[in-house]
Write a structure and sequence with these properties.
Blueprint lengths: L1 E13 L2 E14 L3 E5 L6 H9 L6 E6 L2 E2 L7 E4 L11 H11 L4 H14 L15 H14 L4 E5 L7 H18 L2 E6 L2 H7 L2 E6 L4 E7 L13 H25 L1
Parallel strand pairs: 3-8, 3-9, 6-7, 7-8
Antiparallel strand pairs: 1-2, 1-4, 4-5, 9-10
Helix pairs in contact: 2-3, 2-4, 3-4, 6-7
Length: 258
């Protein structure tokens, strides 16, 4: 499996004229990779994810999965948003089954699949709980289980840990890394958090702003995986390189806008 973004441009019409949000985006994501796109506000991260998810269409260019053109949403892409998007009147099991129910799976099959993925994310014993009874990190794990239950080819994540406090976010980073290594799921995540991107991904696309373009592709090779690596000079070098890259291109964008 691979996900391919080819010469993608996205423009919006405004009262002031045409706004170019994404310009000449090219990406290739192979099966089992964990890829992050990192950029500051105005880099078009969320717009890019919407094109890949099929929630919006490129002005020009294309997105393909397994050489099939993306023309709309589909079960080959699971989506996890920053805010948990759980249905408050449904319990954890019902929320995890929801996508499968929409696909028309029989009750027994969707219950078995959802139960399996709740086990994968460590929430089996909370199957009967309502979202209001869960912590923020637990709610996001339910959302991840729901996305995984449809067994997508790629998991798309829109700043999924941005709404969490620092300690919960760190715990979720460890959880996500372990989940990726155990399931070999292909992940494409957007974030503005440089340390998050370096910690989780094996490749990073650094996006510049106004318009959003790929400024650099960085292959991440860390000496180990786990929170201790954040103190390693190699980790700090990746972090500093990315932060300097985003800072420099942010200044260029401000200068152009002025």
């Amino acid at each position: 499996m691979y996900l391919q973004v080819n010469k993608l441009h996205k423009n919006f019409k405004t009262q002031q004229g045409t706004l170019v949000v994404l310009q000449d985006i090219n990406m290739l994501i192979e099966r089992g990779e964990f890829i992050c796109a990192v950029g500051a506000s105005g880099s078009g991260k969320s717009t890019l994810l919407r094109q890949i998810a099929g929630l919006d269409s490129p002005t020009t260019g294309e997105v393909k999965i397994d050489n099939q053109l993306v023309t709309g949403p589909g079960p080959d892409r699971g989506m996890v948003f920053q805010h948990y998007t759980l249905y408050p009147w449904m319990n954890v099991q019902e929320n995890a089954e929801f996508g499968l129910k929409l696909q028309g799976l029989a009750k027994k099959e969707r219950r078995e699949k959802a139960s399996h993925y709740l086990s994968v994310v460590g929430l089996s014993r909370f199957a009967k709980a309502l979202p209001k009874e869960l912590s923020g990190g637990m709610k996001q794990r339910v959302a991840i289980a729901r996305a995984l239950a449809s067994e997508p080819k790629v998991l798309l994540m829109d700043e999924p840990f941005g709404a969490l406090d620092v300690h919960t976010k760190e715990a979720m980073h460890g959880f996500m890394l372990d989940l990726w290594q155990r399931t070999n799921i292909t992940v494409f995540m957007i974030t503005h958090d440089v340390e998050e991107a370096v910690f989780l991904s094996n490749r990073i696309y650094a996006l510049g702003a106004r318009p959003g373009t790929v400024r650099k592709e960085i292959v991440v090779r860390l000496p180990e995986r786990g929170h201790a690596v954040k103190r390693h000079p190699v980790f700090q070098d990746y972090r500093d390189e990315l932060m300097e890259l985003l800072r420099r291109h942010g200044q260029e964008a401000v200068a152009v806008a002025a």
